[in-house]
Amino acid sequence: MLSVQQQVPLLKYNTLALPSTAEYFCKVSSESELQEALAWARQKQLPITLLGGGSNVVLASDLAGLVIYIAISGIELISEPNQAEKLIRVGAGEDWHQLVLYTLQQGWYGLENLSLIPGLAGAAPIQNIGAYGVELSDRFHSLETIELSSGQSITMTLEDCEFGYRDSFFKGAGRDQYVITTVNLKLSAKVNLCLEYPALQQYLKAKTLAEVTPQQVSDAVCAIRRSKLPDPTEIPNAGSFFKNPVISSEQVETLKQKYPGLVSYEQADGRKKLAAGWLVEQAGWKGITSSGVGVHDHQALVLVNYHGTGKDLLSLAGDIQASVLDKFGVSLEIEPRVYCK
Ligand code: FAD
Ligand code: EPU
Q1: 255-261: which pairs have CB atoms within 8 A and are 24 or more residues apart?
Q2: Does residue 171's CB lie within 6 angstroms of at least one atom of ligand 2?
Q3: Percent of residues, the chain, with pLDDT higher than 90
Q4: What pLDDT was estimated at residue 222?
Q5: How many angstroms separate the alpha carbon of residue 277 from the centre of ligand 2?
Q6: N or C, fewer C-beta in 10 Å, the chain?
Q7: Is 167 in the pocket of ligand 2 (CB under 6 A)?
Q8: Cα separation of 53 and 56, whole Å?
Q9: pTM of the predicted model, to two decimals?
Q10: How close is the Cα of 248 to the center of ligand 2, in Å?
Q11: CATH of 5-70, one of 3.40.190.10, 3.30.43.10, 1.20.1250.20, 1.20.140.10
Q12: Which residues are known catalytic residues?
């Protein structure tokens, strides 16, 4: 039975712990409850905001209309048990990291590099989560959605989702038009490790293991992440605040003449991705605090909230963007979804 509350504080529903209030709020734990919530909002002509773990949102104002927290659970193997390919069907409300641990316990491999990413499974396709050399799109089969305007169920394939680096159809033409209810992933009983990411390679090399297992890769990723990234329950944050900018190799060569330490990675299309954390650190922002918000002292790409507001955070982000543009001629794009009236 759907229960809608009024004027609900969202502080504990966003990992930046920003003060914001939902005009109306409900949790849905099944597709029928979701349909009920959509019909309720449609009848009242209210806008809808979808929320998962709140780990990639900047709530810089109150949210008008109905905020729907997606709590649809379930993890199911849908391929034949004796098949090497493990096709799994995951409810949008499953916790992502718990899902990764569960699949490893079952011997369904492929998600180990994506360990310890906060949030829920249903949000993973929105920005095509990625870490340590693997992106969701590498393990993706399809997903199931409900179209907000019509309530119709629509299944989308890998092609339909238009995944890119921290990008998808749901950030472009499909923005705010679909609720993802289920994500179908393609894992494997066969071990096929991705160990190319420099920090991961170095960490495992130092351990001098005879043979590396998927569980050890997951443990290594967790250890590296814990050493760099602040735990949102201790220091509120939303992970990387900016995307790593992708620019032409000519521009990189010009910058390298002036800044020999510039960190860049080759892309498949010949362009290069810069480490935004390096740019922000070199521009002098690492560890600073201003108006209750700041830049993390271990990872300059992570903005943190001590006791500020979303507007304070966006103001700091704007100052950082301006100074990086001024120093390097490179534009930084904000990664989390900003909600601001
Ligand atoms: P939310 O923040 O609740 O929502 C994000 C967006 O998705 C919102 O626009 C929301 O409306 C929409 N949305 C949510 N659920 C649904 C749904 N079911 N259907 C349709 N739309 C929906 N990201 C990475 O890619 N790699 C990392 O390594 C990484 N590390 C992080 C580390 C930290 C400490 C933190 C705090 C964040 C990190 N992130 C990382 C970002 C974040 O964890 C991911 O983007 C995650 O997928 C967000 O999930 P969520 O459930 O919290 O989404
Ligand atoms: N660096 C600095 N100074 C800093 C931070 C980083 O010089 O303050 C340098 C590092 O020394 C390294 C390079 O930048 O040479 C890259 O740093 P790191 O490996 O920490 O990764 P990142 O590029 O900062 C990206 C993702 C993370 C993801 C990691 C691991 C983006 C925007 N961020 O961070 O994702 O976990 O790689 O794959 O792509 C997120 O999206 O929220 C997120 C945390």
Answers
A1: 255/328, 255/329, 255/330, 259/328
A2: no
A3: 98
A4: 98
A5: 6
A6: N
A7: no
A8: 8
A9: 0.98
A10: 20
A11: 3.30.43.10
A12: 166, 240, 335
